[in-house]
């Protein structure tokens, strides 16, 4: 039963699946009135653009839409419709998210949302539908011939990415490990390593920090940018390569055109022919652990679903919309929302820690970026923790001063 095709993730484990699916359409219809952050004015197409839900007869690519044509995030009438996967697995965990008491969460949650792209799931009408959304949520402004060849190479996952450990209670326990300075001196390493699966992302430096961050990596989430840039940025801390534990699973978060160039080279086992990574051999970056059966590419609809239903930021309603996107950590956390313990993510007392555990006790100014809304994410993690959706690692030390600084930083974060 576990090998049923396309079943990718175990957070999709629901007992009353049939009943749930029956109500799903209705839930979607009600979405806008129930979830306040979704209630934006004018959920219609921007002026001058004819919205249409692409149909199966599409034979040619949609003429290119340009991000520059939209002052704020365009909302299409098929905005909240997503590519869904096959039926979820039966729920084997007595303590699953299905029992979340957070009504808003269960309403927004789609158990069989498609997590990963693969070559058999993309065709011209899908291309045209997804061309209405900016990257990483779609292909707006990308030329068909530049991206489609890579999409057509993505292997089809053979089964779910994660399975419960044999002989266990049917639950899957995951640790999602961020890079926050809160981990330095935490001594959480053994606890992290004791999970069934350990997720890491970006510059996941381990050597020398095992006691605090653990040493195992079961799933590593990255983009072409993060896997290449981390090597340079963290070289001085002894970082030599992305995690490459035996049997590790790699998840690619395709941010832009350069990621599809990366994927094309990776799948073909060739040097990249064009773009910023021209002449590089992507397979080199996986230290011999690249295996197409263990390589996953996040689906654009999964990312848009998260943005629309969980990570909606007021910035989308401004000219910042083109640059804004949730952090890789945020996307990672949702990949596996069943029994997740989260370490090294931003907390209320973030000012007390370095922005990255590799900086040890050096309290660098928290590094805010225009492209991310850390405050929105911080509030969401806190809310999820309080609603028992996740367990967020926090330190229970009394809060100390720094109010002025905080206000200043918050202002800057909003800039
Ligand atoms: C759910 O959303 C409503 C409307 O935004 C809000 O008033 C309520 O407090 C939320 N419930 C929870 C449990 O967060
Ligand atoms: C294109 O792909 C989508 C998503 O997999 C599918 O629903 C649709 O039926 C496909 N259309 C054609 C013409 O194959
Ligand atoms: C978005 O912007 C419009 C126009 O400036 C405003 O009326 C609306 O309240 C804003 N919505 C959100 C959710 O910020």
From TrEMBL:
The keyword Glycoprotein belongs to this UniProt entry's keyword annotation? yes
* Signal peptide positions (record): 1-21
Its primary localisation, in coarse terms, equals Golgi
State the EC number(s): 2.4.3.3
Q: Report the InterPro entries cross-referenced here.
A: Glyco_trans_29, GT29-like_sf
Keyword set for this entry?
Disulfide bond, Glycoprotein, Glycosyltransferase, Golgi apparatus, Membrane, Signal, Signal-anchor, Transferase, Transmembrane, Transmembrane helix
The record's GO molecular-function terms, alphabetically, read: alpha-N-acetylgalactosaminide alpha-2,6-sialyltransferase activity
Instruction: State the PANTHER family in the record.
Output: ALPHA-N-ACETYLGALACTOSAMINIDE ALPHA-2,6-SIALYLTRANSFERASE 1, ALPHA-N-ACETYLGALACTOSAMINIDE ALPHA-2,6-SIALYLTRANSFERASE 2-LIKE-RELATED
What protein family is recorded?
A: Belongs to the glycosyltransferase 29 family.
What protein name is recorded for this chain? alpha-N-acetylgalactosaminide alpha-2,6-sialyltransferase
* Lineage, highest ranks first: Eukaryota, Metazoa, Chordata, Craniata, Vertebrata
């Amino acid at each position: 039963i576990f090998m049923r095709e396309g079943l990718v993730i175990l957070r999709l484990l629901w007992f009353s699946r049939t009943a749930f699916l029956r109500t799903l359409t209705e839930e979607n219809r009600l979405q806008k009135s129930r979830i306040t952050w979704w209630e934006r004015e004018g959920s219609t197409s921007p002026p001058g653009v004819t919205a249409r839900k692409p149909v199966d007869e599409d034979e040619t690519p949609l003429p290119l839409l340009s991000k520059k044509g939209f002052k704020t995030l365009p909302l299409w009438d098929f905005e909240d419709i997503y590519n869904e996967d096959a039926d979820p697995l039966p729920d084997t965990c007595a303590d699953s998210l299905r029992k979340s008491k957070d009504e808003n969460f269960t309403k927004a949650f789609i158990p069989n949302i498609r997590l990963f792209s693969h070559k058999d799931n993309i065709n011209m009408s899908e291309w045209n539908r997804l061309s209405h959304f900016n990257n990483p949520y779609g292909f707006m402004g990308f030329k068909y011939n530049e991206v489609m060849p890579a999409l057509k190479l993505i292997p089809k996952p053979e089964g779910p990415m994660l399975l419960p450990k044999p002989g266990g209670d049917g639950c899957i326990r995951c640790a999602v490990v961020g890079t926050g300075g809160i981990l330095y001196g935490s001594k959480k390493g053994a606890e992290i390593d004791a999970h069934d699966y350990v997720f890491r992302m970006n510059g996941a430096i381990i050597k020398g920090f095992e006691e605090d961050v653990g040493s195992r990596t079961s799933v590593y989430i990255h983009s072409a940018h993060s896997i290449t840039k981390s090597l340079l940025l963290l070289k001085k801390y002894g970082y030599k390569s992305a995690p490459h534990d035996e049997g590790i699973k790699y998840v690619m978060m395709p941010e832009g055109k350069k990621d599809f160039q990366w994927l094309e080279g990776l799948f073909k086992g060739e040097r990249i022919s064009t773009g910023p990574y021209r002449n590089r051999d992507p397979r080199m970056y996986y230290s011999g652990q690249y295996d197409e059966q263990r390589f996953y590419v996040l689906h654009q609809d999964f990312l848009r679903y998260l943005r629309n239903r969980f990570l909606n930021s007021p910035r989308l309603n401004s000219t910042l919309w083109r640059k804004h996107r949730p952090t890789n950590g945020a996307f990672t956390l949702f990949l596996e929302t069943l029994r997740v313990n989260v370490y090294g993510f931003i907390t209320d007392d973030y000012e007390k820690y370095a922005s990255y555990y590799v900086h040890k006790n050096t309290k660098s100014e928290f590094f805010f970026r225009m492209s991310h809304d850390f405050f929105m994410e911080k509030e969401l993690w806190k809310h999820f923790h309080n609603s028992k959706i996740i367990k967020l690692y926090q330190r229970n030390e009394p809060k100390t001063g720094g109010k002025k600084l905080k206000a200043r930083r918050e202002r800057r974060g909003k800039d």
